[in-house]
Design a protein that fits this description.
With 436 residues, the chain is of the alpha/beta class. Helix content is 36%, strand content 29%.
Length: 436
């Protein structure tokens, strides 16, 4: 496909005042007008013929097989012309709504070998994303025309939760002491499962000395304890419309899923059993708790199946159904969202019932826009009104969280970038204190 450039339009448009000027100066000069137009057309055709032909440009596309939500991936395009002409090529990639539109890229073809162009693909939502087509255009040597080539792709890419963050967490918590809570029992409740005997050294708690074994070994030895394993942990995700709200480039549900996978890996390493539960107006998913690091792929698959719902969350149905499915005391990580005290009443009532038998960790995300609206200096009456309303929302949020804490619920109200480490630290604290 060939299209004229702005320079070509300017060349032809310049013929109009030139024609008027020649006719006004001397009517005998009118033959120069068609001669000018003829030369302009000839230059246009020559530029089209001299431009790099689309068929002589080899294009190889290398799409990533999978995208991790919130993490950009490189989409590589390899350009290799079969000609001595090496124009500057402009590239644009068409994607669907599940991907952020990458900016157009300009690339000068290398004099030797192929040229590689990189697009950054960032997924907005989990599921399937499509890269529709690739647009390439380049000018002729005179700059009067542009050659255009469209490559239809239509490739689908799977968008999954960010499992690479799980690997980072695994490296940070690689010390077995962090996973299992293996430590001498210095305070009551920091471990009840016997681990090993060790020689007593000054500084250890004298209450940990095992006098029977000390007499047998003719030296002081003390017991080491570890936190109990094989606890049941359930990651409960609210998939209602409030969790589909975008926050720092991702939906709140995606932030919750990423943090849940990180906690799931740590819990499996700690010897606990992990299950997944999703609900909104009805129960969407329930995965029975399983143990062992080798079952992490099941946890990942279950988390990938959590879809975005436009419906309002029914906490009565969702939490009562969860309680009916649990046959033993469990640690329930409830990741949800609420607006104010009125809409949170049913949530509080059902969380209280759930917390009567199980240990509940309530997780929600802070909205930095609300805090910025409250802390900012109002420039008008409208901005002042917005600041007052935002402050009222934050006040009611604090009221709800305080009521949950009085019910014995562990609450985490953190920023999106801190949810993973905060959730893991709270889990390790619960394990250390043996609250499950």
């Amino acid at each position: 496909m060939i299209r004229p450039t702005t320079r070509a339009v300017a060349v032809f448009a310049a013929g109009i005042p030139l024609a008027f000027a020649l006719v006004l100066a001397d009517p005998e000069l009118w033959p120069y007008v068609p001669a000018y137009l003829f030369l302009a057309c000839f230059a246009l055709l020559a530029d089209s013929a001299l431009a790099l032909a689309p068929g002589r440009l080899n294009v190889q596309v290398n799409l990533p097989p999978v995208l991790y939500i919130g993490q950009p991936e490189d989409f590589l395009v390899r350009l290799e012309p079969e000609s001595h002409r090496r124009p500057e090529i402009e590239l644009l990639c068409d994607v669907d709504d599940n991907l952020e539109q990458p900016p157009r890229v300009r690339a000068a073809l290398s004099e030797e070998g192929a040229t590689q162009v990189t697009f950054r693909l960032t997924a907005r939502r989990r599921g399937k994303a499509r890269v529709e087509r690739l647009w390439l255009r380049w000018p002729g040597p005179l700059g009067l025309v542009r050659r255009l080539r469209i490559i239809e792709l239509g490739n689908e890419i799977a968008v999954t939760p960010d499992t690479r963050a799980v690997k980072n967490i695994a490296l940070q918590f690689a010390d077995p002491m962090a996973f299992y809570g293996i430590k001498p029992q210095r305070q009551q409740g920091e471990g009840s499962e016997f681990e090993a005997l060790r020689e007593y050294v000054p500084g250890l708690d004298p209450r940990s000395i095992d006098w029977k074994h000390s007499a047998r070994h003719m030296s002081l030895v003390c017991k080491e304890f570890r936190s109990e394993r094989n606890h049941q942990v359930v990651l409960a995700f609210d998939t209602g419309h409030l969790m589909s709200e975008p926050l720092q480039g991702l939906t709140k549900l995606d932030h919750a899923v990423n943090a849940g996978l990180q906690l799931g890996y740590v819990s499996l390493r700690a010897g606990d059993r992990i299950g997944v539960y999703g609900f909104d107006s009805r129960v969407r998913l329930f995965s029975q708790p399983t143990g062992g690091v080798g079952t992490f792929w099941r946890l990942q698959r279950a988390a990938s199946e959590l879809s975005y719902s436009p419906e309002e969350t029914n906490f009565t149905l969702g939490l009562s159904s969860l309680a009916a499915r649990l046959d033993r005391r469990s640690l329930v990580i409830l990741q949800t969202e609420f607006v104010d005290t009125i809409t949170a009443e049913l949530m509080l009532e059902n969380v209280e019932r759930l917390a009567g038998r199980h240990l509940v960790v309530f997780v929600c995300l802070q909205d930095p826009q609300l805090e910025a609206t409250v802390d900012g200096t109002p420039a008008s009456l409208n901005s002042l009104a917005r600041s007052v309303i935002a402050d009222e929302f934050l006040r009611e949020r604090r009221v709800v969280l305080e009521r949950l804490r009085r019910l014995g619920v562990h609450c985490l109200d953190v920023k999106a970038g801190q949810i993973g480490p905060a959730l893991i630290n709270r889990y390790l604290e619960i394990k250390r204190r043996e609250l499950i």
